[in-house]
Amino acid sequence: MSDFAVEATNIVRTFNAGDVQALKGVSLHVPRGQVFGLLGPNGSGKTTMVRILSTILAPTSGTATVEGFDVVKQPDEVRRRIGLAGQYATVDENLTGLENLRMIGSLNHLNKSFVATRSKQLLDEFGLADAAQRTTKTYSGGMRRRLDLAAALVARPPVLFLDEPTTGLDPQSRQDLWTIIEGLVEGGTTVLLTTQYLEEADRLCRQLVVLDKGTIIAEGTSQELKTQLGATVLSLAFHTTADAARGVELIRDVSNKPANVEGTVVELTVEGGPASAAEALRRLDAAGITLSGLTLREPSLDDVFLSLTGHRAEATMPQDTVVTTRSGR
User: Fold this and answer.
1) How far is CA 148 from each of CA 94, 164, 206, 290, rounded to the nearest angstrom?
2) Over the range 3-34, which residues count as b (16 or more CB within 10 Å of their CB) and which as e?
3) Domains in the chain and their CATH numbers?
4) What does pLDDT average to in each consecutive run of 10 residues of the chain (329 residues)?
């Protein structure tokens, strides 16, 4: 048996008779029993990749397997071994939480006694037991998302695809879902996660692949990606945008990389650390420009993303997202 739960080799996917290339030869190797992250901006191809791996969409070329089964030649075997949850809860709002889980079990032709036991277990684990008999339309967004994830787990799939699962959730609901995902992995589940939340990727993902315009532009652990940036981040807060514009011209050559300017805040990745900060302050002081704040910090995953793609991650609805349903055993 392979060490990888999911393997994809040179996946290409085109649309509009080949005019649009969503994926351009993407290869993935997802180890068993961990969270593997697909990170990328809107339209990078993350959801297209998940749709191919979950048998919803066929690749134009290339091969992929899940638990050793080919996604094109053996789609039924793949579906028996996966769960899928997207950024929008796909539960039936007119059914109760319990009825939703039982419906999923019925659609997957599972034994009724197993489904009854499994549904109760999942509702307990996901903190939904008290709401089991309530219609889903009375649930909060976080509750619906937890129920959606529970529905993807009714058949005990060894592999779980989560496509932007926490988009739109409040911070506490997002933290709750992270804890659930960590618990699933501790129990042996393999999770492939797409996300634009850098904090989410930093916390959950052991391995990361960064996609941009259908191509892998970086891969490794979160720490390895940060190390590749190899610099300290100098963040300067000015009193006005005019001061920021003047200041960035004065200190631009303190770094060998372009400055990032957002309003009154200028950030530079610098090799010199304190020495570079001192030089920047000297130049600004000589020009009579004062700061409202200055920090030196180690690079974050957001800094890596900015360096690789030219912009920060956007925690908004991805353009290539579709609402999907899950398949089980």
Assistant:
1) 14, 13, 24, 51
2) ebbbbbeebbbbeeeeeebbbbebebbbebeb
3) 4-226 (3.40.50.300), 231-298 (3.30.70.2190)
4) 91 91 96 93 89 95 96 95 81 92 90 93 92 94 89 92 86 87 93 88 92 91 78 90 94 87 90 86 94 87 75 47 35
* Position 216, amino acid: I
d(CA 115, CA 138): 23
- Residues 270 and 290: their CA atoms lie apart, in Å, by 20
Q: What is the pLDDT of residues 205-219, one digit of tens each?
A: 999 999 989 999 989
Q: Note whether 104 and 154 are within 8 A (CB).
A: yes
| Phi, psi (deg, nearest 5) at residue 12 | -120, 135
Instruction: Identify each DSSP E strand in 43-115 by its residue range.
Output: 61-66, 69-70, 82-85
Would you state the pLDDT for residue 43?
84
What residues have CB less than 8 Å from 270, skipping those under 6 apart?
231, 232, 233, 234, 254, 255, 276, 277
Contact by Cβ (8 Å): 26, 49 = yes
- Say which DSSP state 152 is in: H
CB atoms within 10 A of CB 133: 10
The pLDDT tens digits for 35-74 are 999 988 878 899 999 999 999 999 999 999 999 999 999 9
Give the Cβ contact number of residue 182 at 10 Å. Answer: 14
- For residue 318, count CB atoms less than 10 angstroms from its CB and return exposed for 0-12, middle for 13-18, buried for 19 or more: buried
